[in-house]
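Standup notes, structure subgroup. Blocker cleared on the NAP input:
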Amino acid sequence: MQISMRAVVLEGPGQEAVVKEIPIPTPQSGQVLIKVDSAPINPSDIAFLHGAYSSGKQFPCVPGFEGSGTVIANGGGIMGWRLVGKRVAFYSQSQFGTYGEYSVADALGCLELENDITLQEACCSFVNPLTVISMLEVAKEHKTQAVVHTAAASQLGRMMVRHFQANGVRVINIIRRDAQVEMLKKEGADIILNSSDSDFLEKLKNVIQTLRATVFFDALGGELTGKILEVMPSHSTCYVYGGLSLKPVGNVSIMDLIFKDKKVVGFWLTQYLKTKNIISQALLLNQLKGLLKTNLKTIVAKTVDVSEFKEGLEFYKKNMSEGKVLIRFDQKQQQQQQQQQQQLQDKQQ
Ligand SMILES: NC(=O)c1ccc[n+]([C@@H]2O[C@H](COP(=O)([O-])OP(=O)(O)OC[C@H]3O[C@@H](n4cnc5c(N)ncnc54)[C@H](OP(=O)(O)O)[C@@H]3O)[C@@H](O)[C@H]2O)c1
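Run returned:
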C-alpha cells in the first residue's frame, strides 16, 4: 500500500517551495481524503507562497487552495461517507492543500461533479467562478446598470463579461495591453479601454456617465484605484478584491470620500460566503454547477507534472492572460503511456 506521496512543500512564508515525498495525510472527522487529479495556480497561491495571503495554514504545509480529484476515504461523518468514490471539485484550506498527490478537504467544501465535465475542466470551480457569482449579487444590490473592472483580461474578468452580460449588467473592461483587446472581444466584451492610453481617463469618464456605473471591482490597487474612483459618480463604491499592482491603494481623493459619499472597501470571497446561511450556500453551489462549462469556464494554457512545479509557476507569472497552468499528478505516467502506444502503432504500420 502506498504510504507516501509527491507534493509541493512550503516550509515557511516566502521560502522556496520544493517538491518532495511526504506521508499521505489522514482526514479528520468532517474531512475527506482526495486523490488529486489537477490543481490550478491562482494569484492567491502566488501571494500565499510569498507570505502575503491570510489563510490560517500552519507550516510546513502543502500549498494550493482548489483542485479536483476522486474521494478515496472519509475521516468520519455522513457528508464524507456520501462522497467516497465520487469525482469532486474541492476547496481546501487544510495544511495538506491541493498541490499534493493526495489532499484533505472539508466534506462541505467538495462539489460532486456531473459526468459531462472532466476533472481538468472542473479543477478551477471555486475561486474565480464563485467570486463572479458573488460579485453579480453585489452589483445587483447596488442596482447599478454597469460595473468598472480592472485587469479585465484575467480568467475572472472573462467570466465576468460572460456572466454579467448574460444577466443584464454591462462591464467596462480596463486592460493594460492592446493584445488583451481581442481576448476580451472573443468573450463578447464591447467596452474595452486601455489604461496606458493618454486619453484613458477622459474616455472612461464618458462611458461611466453614459452607462451610470456606480460599482468598481478593482483587482490592482496602486495609483489607478483612486484615479478611476475620481471619474465615477457620487455614491459609487470601489471593491478592492486583488492586489496585482503589488502597491497600496493610492490617489483616493479625500473630497470624494467626505463630500461625494464614495467608498473604498475590500472584497474577499471567504468572508462574503460567511454571510450566507447553509441554504443560500447550497443554492450558490447549484448555480455554479450549471455554469462551469459556459459562463464560468476557465481557459487552460498549460498543464505540468508536479515535478515541474517551478517551471509551471514561472510560465504562469509571465503569461497570466493566456490562461491557467494546471499542476497534475499522473501527467508523466500518461505521457509515457502515450509514447509507448505511439511506438507500438509505429511498429505495427
Ligand atoms: N478577493 C477574492 O475573494 C478573490 C477571489 C478570486 C480572485 N481574486 C483576484 O482576482 C484577480 C484575477 O484572478 P485570475 O485568477 O482571474 O487572474 P489571471 O487569470 O491569472 O489573470 C491575471 C490578469 O492580471 C493582469 N495583471 C497582472 N498584473 C497586472 C498589473 N500590475 N497591472 C495590470 N494588469 C495586471 C494580467 O495581465 P498580463 O498578462 O498583462 O500580466 C492578467 O490579465 C486576482 O487579483 C485574484 O487575486 C480575488
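Discussed briefly. The two ends are 40 Å apart (CA to CA).
Next: hand off to the docking folks.
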